[in-house]
Every structure is written in structure tokens, then in C-alpha cells.
Amino acid sequence: MSEGESLASLRARIDAIDGELLALLSERARCAESVARVKRDNGEEPVFYRPEREAEILRRVREENPGPLADDVIVRLFREIMSECLALEHPLTVAYLGPEGTFTHLAARKHFGHAVTTTPLASIDAVFGAVETGRAQFGVVPIENSSEGVVTHTVDCFMDSSLQICGEVVTPIHHHLLSQSAGLGEVRQVLAHAQALAQCREWLDTWLPHAERHAVASNARAAELAAGDGSAAAIASRVAAEHYGVPVQVEHVEDRADNTTRFLIIGTATTRPSGADRTSIMLSTANRPGSLYALLKPIAEAGISLTRIESRPSRCAQWTYVFFLDLLGHQEDPEIAGCLEQLRETADTVKILGSYPRAAT
């Protein structure tokens, strides 16, 4: 068989496979429409988006992926298929900390796919408010960065909110220097979110020590400002560079190659167990000797993995604190449920912020 005949045979096979894929995708979409009809016919308020169900599917396809496509590629493809099928059942609106091109925007797309309507908002408070008032079904907010720690504004919002955490996204953060200037020597100021400036401090000290640093509301806003000022540079994502039309002068200016940020998905409904979950809780107790030990003791005795603990001022009385904890497991798991019962006897306040599928890392 000649090379031309061999290529023709392979292309014919690819065309046949594409036809099979198209038929299967259409069948899956019709099944999604049938699921929506069944849910509506039950007479109760239907729940269309089930984070635990999507997490189970994505975990399964990752585990069963035979290659040669990478696991992350397979997960991304299935995420988009599920996003489009969910849109047939019930379109979703997702609020996020904007504007367009922020890492929170990228996290929203990574978690929900491109078939949802995304709404950029100016503050974390506004994202919480949009979900609480029903203007959006879900919200996406940053919670912690591997280099700079917790986002305290997000933690504080949970003190006064009844919203539940129903998912998380862990995203690698790669910062780029964007500028209309001809070179680094022309840059007189660097614009970025305060967290991004902190994550690139060493690089800036080395390569732009003469440039003033100005914190702005977001990296996307920095890119927007740099688009119209040749003496300014922005630290932002490649998506922001493309969206605002600012050339990338230097790639990867973050100080740590493993720089990552964790984002939370917030909503109004509780999430069922997925088999690989995390539970976030808020505890408060009187300021007395041994109070923190008393809170942590039931967790240690139950053999539960504590993955994060943060303290914040309670805003109720001076020098009193609220503790935020992440536990591995779901609140319906017997060991977690038992631990929560003990904590209710020990702590002044126990608030479950949500149990949700853990993000694949």
C-alpha cells in the first residue's frame, strides 16, 4: 500500500470515528433532555446541577483514560460535554470576581465549562450578594494562594452568609508581564492586584527595581489600564493579555513555579457525598486557656485529617476569634458526623459551611 493509500485509509477511519462520536454526543444530549423532563414531572423543585455527580464522572474518566490523550485533556473535554448538556436541561448563571480575564474567571470556566452565563462583579461581597438574592445560581471566589495564604475577605463573608460551599477549583497561577512599551527600561510603573504583586516581588526587585508598584482591583483591570499607557506594565494572565490587546513582554514572572490558587464554588444547596470530599466548618469559642485544644481534640481522636485552619477576629468582642477549618470527608460520613456532634458540645458556635467534592490536583 502506497503512502497516499495509507493516509486515505486512516482519514476514512477518522471520518467514521467522527461520525460515531457525533451520534453518541447527540444521544447523550437527548438523554440530558430526558433527565430534565423526568425531574420536572416529579412535581418538586428540580435540582439540575449536581456537583457530586459531575465529580464522580470526571474522576471515573480520569481513572479509566487509556491514553494517548492526557488525563487533563480528557477531563476538559468531558467537562465541556457536561456543560453543554446541562445547558439543555437548565441554563446556569455564575457570578465571579471580575472583570473578564481574572484568574477567578478562568476558574469559573474550568469548573462549569463554557455553556454557562458568567457575570463579572467588582467585589467578593457582590458575588455573595448575587447568589443570595438569586441573580446567580452559583458564585466563584478565591479562598487561598499557595504563596500568600488565605484571602481574608472571602473568609469574613462566610461569617454573615448562609451560602454553602458546593465545590472547589485549584488552578496553577502563571503571571506574565504585559506592556505596550518597547522594553523593560521604559516601564515606569507596574500595576496588578496586591496578591499578584506579592507573588512576583522577587522578580520585580531584580528586573524592575526602578518601577513604582501600584495595587489595583484586579489583574484584568491592570491589563486594561496598561493597554492605554506605554509607560505602564501589568501583571496578568495570558487571557487578559489577549482580551485587552496588550503584548506579553515577559512570561512567568511569578516567584514560585508551583504557585496555585484555590477557589470556592458557593451556592444555596447542600451537596451529597461524591466519595472524595472536603468539609469546611466555622467554630467559635470563649477566649480561655485550652479552648483551641478542646476544639481540635475531637478531630484528632476521630482520626480526621485537618487540611486547613485559619483564625479571624469575630467582630463581636475585642480579642475573640472565629476558627475556619477544612476536614477531609463529608459531613454525612459517620466519623465526620460524630466529630461534629462532639464539637457542638464543646464550641460556642458550630457552622457547617459545606461538604463538597475535592478538586483534582
From TrEMBL:
GO terms for biological process: chorismate metabolic process; L-phenylalanine biosynthetic process. Pathway: Metabolic intermediate biosynthesis; prephenate biosynthesis; prephenate from chorismate: step 1/1; Amino-acid biosynthesis; L-phenylalanine biosynthesis; phenylpyruvate from prephenate: step 1/1. Residues 1-93 form the Chorismate mutase domain. The record marks T261 as: Essential for prephenate dehydratase activity. It is found in: Cytoplasm. The keyword Amino-acid biosynthesis applies. Its EC number is 4.2.1.51, 5.4.99.5. Keywords: Amino-acid biosynthesis, Aromatic amino acid biosynthesis, Cytoplasm, Isomerase, Lyase, Multifunctional enzyme, Phenylalanine biosynthesis. InterPro entries: ACT-like_dom_sf, ACT_dom, Chor_mutase/pphenate_deHydtase, Chorismate_II_sf, CM_dom_sf, CM_II_prokaryot, G/b/e-P-prot_chorismate_mutase, Preph_deHydtase. Coiled coil: none annotated. NCBIfam families: CM_P2, PRK11898.1. PANTHER family: PREPHENATE DEHYDRATASE P PROTEIN, PREPHENATE DEHYDRATASE-RELATED. This is Bifunctional chorismate mutase/prephenate dehydratase. It comes from Thioalkalivibrio halophilus.
